[in-house]
Amino acid sequence: MMCKLKTILLRLPAPLIAGTLWFLSSQSTLPQPPGVLGWDKLQHLLAYGVLGLAIGLWISPGFWRSRSLLALLLTTLIGSAYGAIDEIHQYFVPGRHSNILDWVANTLGSFLGALAIMIVMKKSKPAETT
Questions:
Q1: Which of 1, 27, 62, 105 could make a disulfide contact with 44, Cβ separation 3.0–4.6 Å?
Q2: What is the DSSP letter of 67?
Q3: What letter does residue 60 receive in the DSSP assignment?
Q4: Alpha-carbon distance 94 to 122, whole Å?
Q5: What is the pLDDT confidence band of residue 36, given thresholds at 50, 70 and 90?
Q6: With DSSP H G I counted as helix, E B as strand and the rest as coil, what are the percentages for the chain, rounded to 5?
Q7: How far is CA 87 from CA 1, 49, 76, in A?
Q8: Where are the domains of the chain?
């Protein structure tokens, strides 16, 4: 029972984050601080970095340890695909635009989030069963 609850709690952030990103992308305008160079790309990088971390939690620690590069690739591809879909979605939102550089920032953020999970999983020891 506790294992199932732990799995649910670890997997819950990804759809919540994805839904929040979708909601924010649906807004015609978002508040922006004035004069911050590249702020938009940094926002994409950070948001998708968090999404990459959350997506990475769907993959078992054992898979991260044994097939880390494949797990990294899968997590990055899922985050990148979601970022592409989100950019297409923004194209149809009045007042918003779709930008390939935003998608690049989304993909890079997903990769960095996945990389962080990979590093943690590789350094952690497998749980002992009793």
A1: 105
A2: S
A3: -
A4: 44
A5: low
A6: 75, 0, 25
A7: 39, 16, 16
A8: 39-124
Dist CA 78 CA 113 (whole Å): 12
Helix (H), strand (E), coil (C) string for 89-124: HHHCCCCCCCCHHHHHHHHHHHHHHHHHHHHHHHHC
Contact by Cβ (8 Å): 72, 118? yes
Per-residue pLDDT tens digits for 57-77: 999 999 999 999 999 999 999
For residue 115, give the nearest of 57, 54, 61, 53 by alpha carbon. Answer: 53
* Predicted TM-score (pTM) of this structure: 0.86
As a whole number of angstroms, the distance between CA 26 and CA 59 comes to 29
* pLDDT at 110 exceeding the cut of 60: yes
Report how far residue 99's alpha carbon sits from residue 69's, in angstroms, rounded to the nearest whole number: 28
